[in-house]
Every structure is written in structure tokens, then in C-alpha cells.
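Following up on my earlier message about iron/sulfur cluster. Here are the inputs again, as you asked, copied directly from the submission form:
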Amino acid sequence: MTAETDLGRKRRARRMGRVLTETHPDAHCELDHEGPLQLAVATILSAQTTDKGVNEVTPKLFARYPTAADYAGADRAEMEGMIKSTGFFRNKTDSLIKLGQALVERYDGRVPGKMADLVTLPGIGRKTANVILGNAFGVPGITVDTHFQRLVHRWGWTAEVDPVKIEHAVGALFEKRDWTMLSHRVIFHGRRVCHARKPACGACTLASMCPSYGAGPVDPVAAAKLLKGPRARELAVAAGVDPSVVPAQAMTADVP
Ligand code: SF4
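Thanks, got it. Here's what our run produced:
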């Protein structure tokens, strides 16, 4: 087999990007939010837990703390109780209170819309900053989370392991304007099809372009049973697999 050229990789990545667009027309930021402050809070809470778990606690949290000043002056015990189910609640409470304080002290209570400013805020690293920029400010950003890392490695898009280097390597394969939605689609694929353990290779729309085809079951029936999410049967159809083999519980299963 001849090694893939840089141009070949870029073309294949873009073809995969187009298939992902068709496969996941519902891709979006799965953290419920309105505005940058709520998104910053939800993203901090999402560490080491599912977006669904975060969405269960945020309606009450957002109602209780509508502004940065409310987080800054929050009662620690009360906030810990409200976010306990998301895990690491002491650290997360600490981050949220410090975030509120920093926003009030340095940014007039508003979340800034620049990477250089965002990464100076408590609890906000580059990944979180990209989520905020892409989804609350319309500034294109690539979100390198655990799913994104796993998938771009499986796809041979890059061999880099450092998240910032992955961000730049994948960014070079796509138009900047596509970065935010590409991130959502890759993450959607990782949550619903290309799982960490047992990817659904036999029911995957990317199979013909994926160098890791065979990492999971290639039998269509066995693979289709691994699809997850409300569109699991549509995902099977998109991959040319009989949707009736997708069990009903796949549609209501939690995505990781
Ligand atoms: S073919 Fe398998 S490894 Fe490749 S993207 Fe699809 S599920 Fe993932």
C-alpha cells in the first residue's frame, strides 16, 4: 500500500466531512444554554460527566445564578448541592465562583469573546474556550475532546497527541468556517457510532474511507445493534443497513 500524501489526506478528510454532514444533520452543541455565561458554566460542569447529566442540573442553576455577580457571591454549600450529581462538585463549585469573580473584576461581568482572554479565566482551558467561541460568539473553533481525539486518530487525520497540535493539524484540513460544525459532527459520530469500545463499523457511513474499519464488528446486524441515540435507525439506513435490527432501547440510550 502506498503512503497517503498530504493532499490525499486532505481530500479524504473533506469527503468524510461531507458524509458526516449528511449523517448527522442534527449535530449541535449538546449542552443546553442561552448565551456565553451559561455555556461557560455548562462546559465547566461537563468535565468527567455526560452532557445529559449537565442538562439535568443547569435549568435550576441558571435560574438561581443569572449573572456573573451571582456566581461570584454564591453560597458554596448551596451551589455544591445543586451540582453534586455532575461529580467533582467541590472543584466545579470553586471554578464557578472564581469564574464569576474574575468576570466581575476584569470584564465588567461579561464573558469575553477572545481566546487570549478566555483562557485566563478560572476553569476555562483551550477546549472550553473553543466551545464558547464557536457556539456563543460565532468564531470558528475546533473542540478537541476525548471523542474528537479518538476519531481523528482512527481516521488517520493526524498522529499528533497533544490537543493543541491536533487542533491545528485538523484545522489545516478544513475551511475555517467549517470548524465549529465539524467538531459537533465528529463528536456526534463518536457518541453514536464510533464508540471507544466496539465501534459500529458494519453500520458506519464512513466505512469505505476509514483506515480503522474493522476496529469493531463489521457484521451489519451486530454493528447496527451498537448504534445509539434517537436517530439510531436513521443512522442504520444511512449506512445501508436494515433499520429494524436496531433495538428500540438504542434510541433512548444515553450517549456518552
Ligand atoms: S468504520 Fe469503524 S472505526 Fe471507522 S469511523 Fe466507522 S465505526 Fe469508527
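One observation from looking it over: The chain has 14 helices and no strands. Hope that helps, and feel free to reply on this thread.
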